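tl;dr need the bound structure. longer version: we got a ligand (zinc ion) that a collaborator sent over and nobodys looked at where it sits. i said id run it. heres the input, straight from their email, havent touched it
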Amino acid sequence: MAMNNDYDLSLLTPIKEQLMVIARSGLTGHAFLFSGDDAFSDAIFLAQCCNCQTPVDGLACGECDVCRKIASGTFEELHIIYPEKKLHRIENMRAMQEIVAKKAIYGQTKVFIIVNADLMQEAAANSLLKILEEPPDDTVFILLADSIDKLLPTVISRCQVFGCGSASAAVIDDNEVKKLLPQAQQLLLSLPQLQCWQVLLKAKSVIGENDKQQQLHYFTALLWLLVSSIKGEQQLPFSAEHALKSAMMMENAIDYIYRNINRKILTDVIFLRLWQNALR
Ligand SMILES: [Zn+2]
């Protein structure tokens, strides 16, 4: 694999590592949600990855004209949206929508970084949701948020969620995970037959029946099954691409549980996205 010698892997943040997996798998997306101390610089890096003239392994070189312009904040198609007086108002989103509707000038990817996306009026959040539902091809949105549980679940579900933080602190007991495999497998196999409300009922029962530790085991069981389906060892109702997307999402979800995110919202969103992925 050709790697730029100047590319220092030790400088990779957890989000950059995850982006690398995505770049190598050839997956793309229009909306991303980043949290963590390095979220802003990771967003700049993703903006570079979308527009780099000489990418290395699908990732930004950091040295071409465009990468330099993005780093210095002078790239025409990079739009950074800050809250005003600690709030994103609907006017902000309307102004963004106007730029979204225009074609990128240089045939490149327009990147919108929404700083403190968790500080959003309800009307603004709904307006953002509409934009995320029908993103133009040449556009990428990166939401930065400290408190993910303050975002609308419907907005979160439109985004690929990337977090930071280490998962090493808590203990996963493999035997406990194995006990949950049949239940997790049954859920994944049943997804294509379920209606939306039934998916949410399943999510509710998972929250009702499991404490944080048990839920970690349950989500790990789901992750194991998805990974074994990618390897071809397991028949699940997912294409290879969507099994991979789902596995990465479960990895993030496990990380969020470690970090004590609101488990109710997380579980609703995860189940709905698994369901959507299974229908594709
Ligand atoms: Zn570059």
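gonna send this back to them w/ a short note. The chain has a mean pLDDT of 84.
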